[in-house]
């Protein structure tokens, strides 16, 4: 069944407008009487029937609330060193499908792309749109939040104080991701800090260890590109706790 | 240390030519006396010193054989329904980094792209080149083989008879990938059969079960794009057996 983000809801009706309305009427050519699923950012999902369509909106009557089972139980945030645009877009699309809770773009020392001011805001808007499209495609109902571009010192305040931080680093040869997960509490949030294309500088890893209590981990003997490391690490965490595969 | 595919080797010297020579001389501007790593398709790796460079080749003296630890112990093949070009390229690049043993492009009923004849050969050549570039980037020494484009009936003969086949399918709601892996023998090859963009038709899954003995599995409650499913399933298998993360 087709899914649409709704603009508002009361007890009996929900409304669809804007781009979602365009998609409903022009792309899918749905009309009155047809059943659809509506969702909002809160993670709630409703089955509804289209009652009326005008230029401004589609009015749908609520049939019943549906219980979505598409959200991972473990909360995993990806913190990704700024890399070239298409790599970040890939991570946001795949991360959303796989089940990440949120993503934070991070300015790092070796980030070639330095996003500031309105340019950063525009880029983040674009990334949020990509997350929104991926949410619909994969059947999720909660859109992972894409944070503004942050610096290292902004990280501690941005995520809950009990977050369990992990930083894959090629200088770490002994501790594996899976070994670390065994000692983690799956009821608390986790954050994976992934380097940019050129990797982290050792001082950055040291900072993460000292200020965030992050554990540096190895992803194995092959050198993964930044975007591959992000996708693989997220997959391993979600699969480890039974939220994927 | 920089790594180059070698064209030939005897006991004391190895040679580098063609594009690899271009990369060595023009891109990296290396010269006599510098140490490099040479590898061939057999999985062997040598440390060598450049002795002489001419227009045709670089002659390097062998310092010692190195033992690569970059190959996964478990052999995992990806069999991927033909999807649009850039998706297959992404799977080949990421699959190589992550540690796949080989990839087979498969004609399926819902494959929009139908590759035949010389067009198929050209495309496979391109995919092999992508695998070759990824091998160098990630530090592997064995290049995953990219097979010609095959049809379903070609599969049984193409992989060893004791291959353990898995087919992620959205119609499978109960058996997870991880549950299946618990009963598999990691010393035998595994093959993950991944659908094209539109997914498999149920008859194809039935065929895989009957003719290959494939087990259909679920990757979880979110709908993954074809290329995401390939990358995630491969990651989960390699991580499960300790070959990643």
From TrEMBL, chains A, B:
Domain Ribosomal RNA small subunit methyltransferase E PUA-like as annotated: residue spans: 16-62
Residues annotated as domain Ribosomal RNA small subunit methyltransferase E methyltransferase: 71-237
Entry EC no(s): 2.1.1.193
Single annotated GO MF: rRNA (uridine-N3-)-methyltransferase activity
Major subcellular site: cytoplasm
Enzymatic class: transferase
Location in or out of the cell: Cytoplasm
A Pfam family annotated for this UniProt entry: PUA_4
Organism superkingdom: Bacteria
Annotated GO biological process: rRNA base methylation
Keyword field contains RNA-binding: no
Record protein name field: Ribosomal RNA small subunit methyltransferase E
């Amino acid at each position: 069944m087709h899914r649409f983000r709704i603009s508002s809801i009361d007890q009996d009706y929900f409304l669809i407008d804007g781009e979602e309305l365009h998609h409903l009427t022009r792309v899918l050519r749905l009309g009155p009487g047809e059943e659809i699923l509506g969702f909002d950012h809160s993670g709630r999902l409703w089955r509804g029937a289209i009652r009326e369509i005008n230029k401004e909106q589609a009015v749908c009557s609520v049939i019943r609330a549906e219980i979505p089972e598409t959200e991972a139980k473990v909360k995993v945030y990806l913190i990704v060193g700024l890399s070239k645009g298409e790599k970040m877009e890939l991570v946001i699309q795949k991360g959303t499908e796989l089940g990440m809770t949120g993503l934070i773009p991070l300015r790092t020392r070796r980030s070639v792309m330095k996003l500031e001011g309105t340019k950063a805001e525009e880029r983040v808007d674009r990334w949020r749109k990509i997350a929104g499209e991926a949410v619909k495609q994969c059947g999720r109902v909660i859109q992972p939040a894409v944070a503004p571009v942050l610096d290292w010192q902004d990280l501690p305040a941005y995520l809950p104080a009990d977050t369990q931080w992990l930083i894959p680093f090629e200088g770490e040869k002994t501790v594996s991701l899976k070994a670390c997960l065994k000692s983690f509490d799956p009821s608390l949030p986790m954050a994976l800090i992934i380097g940019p294309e050129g990797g982290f500088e050792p001082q950055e890893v040291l900072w993460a260890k000292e200020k965030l209590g992050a554990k540096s981990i190895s992803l194995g003997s092959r050198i993964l590109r930044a975007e591959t490391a992000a996708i693989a690490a997220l997959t391993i965490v979600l699969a480890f706790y039974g939220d994927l595969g």
